[in-house]
Structures are given as structure tokens and as C-alpha cells.
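Design job #97: recover the sequence.
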């Protein structure tokens, strides 16, 4: 499939910056407003490789659009909840320890729905000592870090 950004930009910087986050934003649209999570309430989805700070804004925007179009059956006829409610029930998102907005993401989604991304072995991984960086994540409390390290992966993988 063609990736977002490749049809518009020729620079690797632009293509790479856009493709991961925009592809994941589109996946969130498909899973929530497309009715997939409604039809499959036991399905768990993890949105990875795109950071997590954008998620509260994006789900809020989807909620607004679903509300505006609530009387149009072809748009929202399969949905019984807001897109954000589906995601909060069945979704997980990863984050990197140095991205902004982790406190807001934890408050919005809950640290038990956040997955830590070490990004190893990519060149931007914080290596050596990458696990130590999780404990230094700005905006996350020690309780949040414990949820990220234990509750979130346990809930996702059913441990």
C-alpha cells in the first residue's frame, strides 16, 4: 500500500515523519469509527511506532465528528459509543520517554493503556541503559511507570 506522505513529499525526512503517525491515525479511525471495535468487543489493538502524544487530540476530534454526524446512519449507524470510548476500552498506544505530553496522555487514557517503546535497535534508541530511561520519563509518576511496565502489557497480552 502507498504510505501517507509519499505522494506529496520527496524528502526522506518528511516521508518518514508523516508515514508512521498518519498511518496510525488512520488505523485509529478504521478501528473506532469504522465499527471494528463495536463488532469485536474482545479485540485488543495496539497502536505502535508513532508516539502517543497525538492520541488525546485525535480521539477528541473523532468524537466531535461522530457527534456532528450522529444522525447520518451511513456515518455513525454502527456506533453505540464515542470513538474515544472504544479506544479506551480496547486500545493501547506506545510512547517514547522523551516525547512531550506524557502526563496528559496518562491522564486521558490511563497509564495501564500505555506501552513503553524502547525503539531498540533503531538508531534513536537510548542505548545503553534504555530501561533506565523509562524511570526518567517526564510527566509520569512512579505509579504510572509501574502501570506502564506491568499493567499495560499484562492487559494487552493477557498475562
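Job complete. Output follows.
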Amino acid at each position: 500500500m502507498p504510505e501517507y506522505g509519499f505522494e506529496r513529499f520527496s524528502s526522506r525526512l518528511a516521508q518518514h515523519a508523516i508515514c508512521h503517525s498518519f498511518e496510525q491515525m488512520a488505523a485509529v479511525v478504521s478501528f473506532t469509527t469504522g465499527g471494528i471495535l463495536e463488532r469485536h468487543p474482545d479485540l485488543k489493538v495496539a497502536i505502535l511506532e508513532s508516539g502517543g502524544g497525538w492520541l488525546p487530540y485525535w480521539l477528541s476530534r473523532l468524537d466531535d465528528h461522530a457527534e456532528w454526524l450522529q444522525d447520518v446512519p451511513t456515518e455513525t449507524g454502527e456506533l453505540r459509543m464515542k470513538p474515544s470510548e472504544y479506544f479506551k476500552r480496547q486500545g493501547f498506544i506506545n510512547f517514547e520517554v522523551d516525547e512531550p505530553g506524557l502526563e496528559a496522555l496518562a491522564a486521558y487514557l490511563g497509564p495501564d493503556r500505555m506501552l513503553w517503546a524502547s525503539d531498540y535497535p533503531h538508531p534513536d534508541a537510548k542505548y545503553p541503559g534504555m530501561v533506565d530511561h523509562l524511570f526518567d520519563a517526564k510527566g509520569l509518576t512512579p505509579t504510572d511507570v509501574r502501570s506502564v511496565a506491568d499493567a499495560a502489557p499484562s492487559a494487552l497480552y493477557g498475562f
